[in-house]
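ok so I'm stuck.
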Amino acid sequence: MPIIKFTAEKKTTILKLAEFKGIEREKLEKSLKIGGVIVNGRRVRDKNFAVKKGDKVSICIDENPPEIEFSENWIVFKDEFLIIVNKPQGLTTQGTMCYDVNHLYYFVKQYCKSYVGLHHRLDRDTSGLVLFTLKKEANKPVSEMFKNKKIEKTYIAVVNGILKEKKEIDFPIGRIPASQPAKWWTNMPNSKEARTIVKPLKTGKKYSLIEAMPLTGRTHQIRVHLASIGHPILGDRFYNAEEKENFSLMLHCKRLRFNHPITGKKITVETDLPKRFQKILEKGL
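replied:
not stuck anymore, here's the structure
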């Protein structure tokens, strides 16, 4: 995914800048359409957008957003203030630097045709429940709920090896210095507190079906914690270089439990396990 970055040397347009940099018009127009042209941190979509000397410009070339269509079946809860959506695997929660279409946030905004607030994310290859706000008055209480760990999140995973008993993993997590793409691990410089409760639900000869409840919200927390205790998630080649099985990431956010930020009513939303889990369970672990 080539990303061309440069500083405008004079007043001109995006089209003329792209031509000067040798970017084909067809590729520029595609990039503009999907939100892959950024000027001073702002996405632009008009090839005649005026830039001035000193403007910072990024143009992403040949990026392909997921080819997926939104389904109302993804919606598992909706009221005046909240909507909870079951994100499929392979879909980003929000746009990347190079595209701002065909991600979960984009689809939800298109469906609701109104204000939508994003408060948390799942990795591209993690499926499961994501909560959005539909009224600005719900933003502060929902943000406080996430900040104060008042939203209970339960994940299901298939891990390598046999997890014998319930345990709390309490290892701080930080970014591995200079890692590109960014990668996290335990006890790195500037690590932050990270705690995850894991327990086995079913074990087999090679794998374990487990439940994981993050008590903190670090990037890649469940993946890092499980890999750090010798039980990397099946299909997680990013944190298990020795992964040889032909599985996608076996991690799914199955349940959200919280008190409604406006009404105070207890809310529990739960999904069925995706087909990729059902298939491996049918075959046996």
